[in-house]
């Protein structure tokens, strides 16, 4: 009863786009601006570009083994037992662990901005309950829901941008590159790692795509669209608030949506804007969790993956509460994670590709 | 069968989760605060007053004759402490998402408003769209105690009059919280805030009878502007200087100005468009700022004998307007440079944009450089229309 | 105390829910993995409820990567 659902290439694109926007959209302008000040928009262009380059490695690797999931060809390349260990390491430290931080992200946002007296545990349990239900249903329903919600997300973004543009001030972008390229590059590096080094995770979903030759294009398009959307968001945030003020806010995009005021009538609708974020984070979490659970089930060659959802879910909820105690811990952790992500995001696929090329391994003729 | 039982239990459990939550606030448990004032007390604490709406009084069906707002006061070591303490007196929780105005006492402003503002921007309930003003001459608390005509909620009245007068009367300025914070964080500009002054008898203003007369004995007006250096109040700009200031930061929508006529008397003009360009340039390693002002105006009131049918008259009016405006702008710049030594115009920003390298050198003690920097003011005026009559009324009245 | 009991109760509920179909289908390997993971989850949950400090992967990663990070930042500057 393993998941045999099939998704289309377009659904894969949408999934990866929602995934990348997920955690990043609400905090990125602030983290970029704290280093690059008013040049943050330049950083927001650099990072997806670097991410797209790294993606090429992953796509090359995937094309050698069309229609196969990552864990399968890890075992082919590295041998059965080493492969299993490598797969487990990858699953535990990438999709599974990122899930802790992502869940904590949305819990923090809700308790900080909207419902401070609610215990964060309650939010995590309720939210992750919905995720578990989604994951148990399978990839196809998730992908279809993403496809359905996608136009709404785009529409809400358009609303946000259109209604803010009258209030922006061009001079907030000046002077451009006042401190040179170094701060811009420095700012863009953590942003590359989170989220643009993570598409490797999507290599786990390749075996569900009904036309496997389109996978590369789909991943590229989704990533590029996510990068573009984040670029516009960062640009507008800087145009409205200026570099200094943007770096002060914890959730600059939320502050951005607070400023919508059309004719003194359409105002205070920022919570509707926050639904963009709820939806994108849901899909981010759902994909992370799905990949972890299904990957784990594959590695141990289980007959089904569903029974793993509840125990792994429980671990995720508890760990998401444990992972950092306060905002200071998180800020200190971000640059460290930035370096760590390169291991699973870049080194692993590169290593796999190199070994595969050297040993002339390709997809076996008999699947 | 078993499925159904499990499902029913689950549904009931989930429903109970969906009904309430930890953060529910019933509407009649909230005290909607429209005005907040912060003062210093004698023993170094904060006196916070909140002007709260009495919902029954504001409703269309009319109330029982009570005042439409009440005021709660408390002192505390921090602003938040004082606000929470108010609940010992107030039957409801102070809810600040609808705040319209924050008034800060003069004494506190001179010490520095940075501490007070941190709470304002950090708290999630407060938005950034309310105005901040300084109370001049009286305690900030008193600004919230005066009843006002035309608008039941005095804080809303202050908010609205500040918005309207900013668009119609040059010396007025309304500053929202996020603009204030941006200015404070900006090294190239010091903030300027509006001032509130109360006129008339303070005791009378407190009473509903203030509004039962046609001629209101006490009222609030926002007149001059408060000049800051970083977050400390250093002085005021009078009416003319405030005008100049607003011209330079391009905040004039429409306003009125006057000048003297060639043969005695005055003529008033209404400015309909005002556009300023502030540019900095470097000469011999020193910064110079050019202020280019373009004004379009119409004739509004003629109190002298002049002939408006002649082209030379308009040219003469233009010339005199240019002179007057240059004087107004100069007065503001001179006051900021010489008396306050505080760059309130954002000339530092202009230097920053034009020559970042120079700015890096000067930013540490920019105010010193600002005080001695030459500023060239150039004004261009175009007078176009003259209202609904084509010549001066006085001309018709034969002497 | 109460919360720890609630966590245990939830675990038992989950076990009841999942174990029977697994046993019925004779999937022993899966059953054991499930039990192990559920046990881990329960232990973590109870530890959290009783405020016992738990191993934190953030600390491990920070510990391992701090030198790498500093070397990288040095390179960029």
Account of the protein in words:
- The complex is a heterotrimer of chains A (367), B (399) and C (77).
- Chain A has one domain (9-357): Up-down Bundle (Amino acid/polyamine transporter I).
- Chain A has twelve helices and two strands, in the order αααααααααββααα.
- Chain A has a two-stranded antiparallel ribbon with strand order 1-2.
- Chain A has 367 residues and is an all-alpha fold.
- In chain A, β1 (261-262) and β2 (266-267) form a beta hairpin.
- Helices cover 75% and strands 1% of the residues of chain A.
- Chain B is α/β, with parallel strands linked by helices and 399 residues long.
- In chain B, strands 1, 2, 3, 4, 5, 6, 7, 8, 9 and 10 form a ten-stranded mixed beta sheet that branches. A four-stranded mixed beta sheet of chain B has the order 11-12-13-14.
- In chain B, α5 (114-122) crosses α8, α10 (239-248) crosses α11 (311-340) and α12 (347-354) crosses α13 (356-362).
- The longest helix of chain B is centred in the last third of the chain and has 30 residues, at 311-340.
- Chain C is mainly alpha-helical.
- Chain C has one domain (2-76).
- Chain C has helices at 2-24, 28-49, 57-76.
- Chain C is elongated and about 60 Å long.
- At the A-C interface, α4, α7, α11 and α12 of A face α1, α2 and α3 of C.
Q: What's a quick, concise take on this entry?
A:
The complex is a heterotrimer of chains A (367), B (399) and C (77). Chain A has 367 residues and is mainly alpha-helical.
Our measurement of the CA-to-CA distance between the termini of chain A, rounded to an integer number of angstroms, reads: 19 Å
Shape of chain A: globular
Number of helical stretches of at least 4 residues of chain C: 3
Overall pLDDT score of chain A: 85
Alpha-carbon Rg of chain C, integer: 20 Å
Structural class of chain A: mainly alpha
Number of strands of chain C: 0
**Regions of chain A with pLDDT < 50 over 5+ consecutive residues?**
none
Biggest interface, chains and residue tallies = A-C, 35 and 36 residues
Could you name the CATH class of chain A?
Answer: Mainly Alpha
Q: CATH homologous superfamily name of chain A? A: Amino acid/polyamine transporter I
Q: For this entry, what is the oligomeric state of its chains? A: heterotrimer
Order of helices and strands of chain A: HHHHHHHHHEEHHH
Largest sheet of chain C: none
- Number of DSSP strand runs of chain A: 2
Largest sheet of chain A: 2 strands, antiparallel
Number of domains of chain C: 1
- Distance linking N and C termini of chain C: 52 Å
Portion of residues in beta strands of chain A equals under 5%
Give the class of chain C from helix and strand content and strand pairing.
mainly alpha
Q: Overall mean pLDDT score of chain C?
A: 82
């Amino acid at each position: 009863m393993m998941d045999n659902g099939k998704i289309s290439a377009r659904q894969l694109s949408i999934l990866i786009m929602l995934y990348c926007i997920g955690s990043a959209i609400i905090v990125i302008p602030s983290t970029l601006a704290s280093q690059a000040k008013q040049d943050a928009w330049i950083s927001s262009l650099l990072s997806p570009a670097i991410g797209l380059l790294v993606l090429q490695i992953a796509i090359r690797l995937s094309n050698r083994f069309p229609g196969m999931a990552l864990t399968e060809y890890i075992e082919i390349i590295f041998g059965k037992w080493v492969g299993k260990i490598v797969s487990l390491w990858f699953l535990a430290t990438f999709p599974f662990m990122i899930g802790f931080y992502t869940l904590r992200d949305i819990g923090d946002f809700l308790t900080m901005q909207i419902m401070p007296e609610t215990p964060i545990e309650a939010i995590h349990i309720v939210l992750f309950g919905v995720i578990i239900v989604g994951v148990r249903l399978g990839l196809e329903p998730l992908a279809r829901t993403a496809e359905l919600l996608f136009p709404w997300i785009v529409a809400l973004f358009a609303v946000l941008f259109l209604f803010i543009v009258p209030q922006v001030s061009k001079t907030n972008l000046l002077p451009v590159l006042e401190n040179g390229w170094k701060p811009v590059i420095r700012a863009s590096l953590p942003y590359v790692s989170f989220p643009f080094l993570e598409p490797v995770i999507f290599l786990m979903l390749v075996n569900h795509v009904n036309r496997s030759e389109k996978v590369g294009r789909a991943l590229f398009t989704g990533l590029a669209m996510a990068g573009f959307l984040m670029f516009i968001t960062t640009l507008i945030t800087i145009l409205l608030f200026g570099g200094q003020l943007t770096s002060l806010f914890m959730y600059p995009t939320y502050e951005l949506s607070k400023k919508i005021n059309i004719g003194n009538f359409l105002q205070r609708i920022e919570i509707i804007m926050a639904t963009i974020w709820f939806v994108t984070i849901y899909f981010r979490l759902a994909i992370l969790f799905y990949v972890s659970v299904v990957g784990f089930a594959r590695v141990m060659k289980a007959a089904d993956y569903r029974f793993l959802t509840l125990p792994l879910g429980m671990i995720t909820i508890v760990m998401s509460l444990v992972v950092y105690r306060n905002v200071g811990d998180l800020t200190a952790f971000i640059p460290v994670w930035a370096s760590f992500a390169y291991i699973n995001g870049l080194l692993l696929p590169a290593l796999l590709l190199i070994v595969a090329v050297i040993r002339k391994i390709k997809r076996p003729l008999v699947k | 069968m078993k499925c159904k039982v499990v499902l029913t239990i689950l549904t009931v459990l989930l429903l109970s989760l969906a009904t309430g939550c930890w953060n529910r606030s019933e509407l009649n448990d909230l005290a909607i605060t429209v005005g907040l004032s912060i003062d210093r007390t004698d023993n170094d604490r904060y006196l916070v007053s909140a002007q709260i709406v009495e919902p029954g009084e504001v409703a269309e069906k009319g109330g029982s004759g009570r005042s439409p707002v009440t005021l709660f006061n408390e002192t505390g070591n921090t602003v938040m402490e004082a606000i929470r303490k108010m609940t010992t007196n107030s039957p409801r929780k102070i809810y600040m998402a609808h705040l319209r105005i924050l008034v800060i006492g003069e004494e506190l402003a001179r010490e520095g408003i940075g501490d007070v503002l941190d709470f304002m921007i950090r708290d999630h309930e407060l938005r950034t769209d309310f105005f901040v003003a300084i109370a001049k001459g009286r305690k900030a608390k008193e600004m919230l105690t005066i009843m006002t005509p035309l608008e039941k909620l005095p804080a809303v009245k202050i908010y609205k009059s500040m918005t309207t007068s900013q668009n119609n009367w040059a010396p007025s300025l309304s500053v929202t919280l996020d603009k204030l914070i941006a200015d404070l964080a900006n090294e190239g500009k010091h903030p300027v805030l509006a001032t509130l002054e109360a006129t008339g008898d303070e005791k009378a203003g407190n009473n509903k009878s203030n509004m039962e007369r046609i001629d209101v004995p006490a009222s609030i007006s926002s007149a001059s502007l408060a000049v800051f250096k970083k977050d400390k109040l250093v002085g005021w700009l009078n009416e003319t200087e405030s005008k100049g200031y607003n011209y330079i930061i391009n905040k004039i929508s429409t306003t009125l100005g006057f000048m003297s006529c060639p043969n005695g008397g005055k003529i008033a003009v209404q400015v309909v468009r005002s556009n300023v360009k502030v540019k900095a340039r470097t000469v011999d390693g020193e910064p110079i700022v050019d202020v280019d002002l373009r004004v379009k105006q119409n004739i509004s009131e003629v109190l002298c004998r002049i002939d408006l049918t002649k082209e030379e008259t308009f040219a003469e009016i233009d010339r005199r307007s240019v002179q007057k405006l240059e004087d107004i702008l100069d007065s503001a710049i001179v006051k900021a440079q010489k008396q306050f030594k505080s760059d309130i115009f954002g000339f530092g920003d202009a230097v920053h944009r034009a020559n970042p390298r120079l700015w890096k050198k000067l930013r540490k003690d920019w105010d010193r450089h600002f005080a001695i920097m030459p500023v060239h003011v150039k004004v261009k005026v175009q007078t176009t229309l003259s209202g609904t009559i084509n010549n001066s009324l006085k001309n018709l009245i034969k002497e | 105390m109460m919360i720890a009991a609630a966590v245990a109760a939830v675990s038992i509920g989950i076990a009841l829910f999942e174990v029977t179909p697994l046993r019925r289908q004779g999937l022993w390997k899966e059953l054991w993995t499930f039990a192990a993971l559920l046990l881990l989850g329960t232990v973590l949950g109870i530890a959290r409820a009783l405020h016992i400090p738990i191993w934190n992967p953030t600390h491990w990663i920070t510990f391992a990567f701090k030198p790498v990070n500093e070397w990288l930042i040095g390179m960029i500057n």
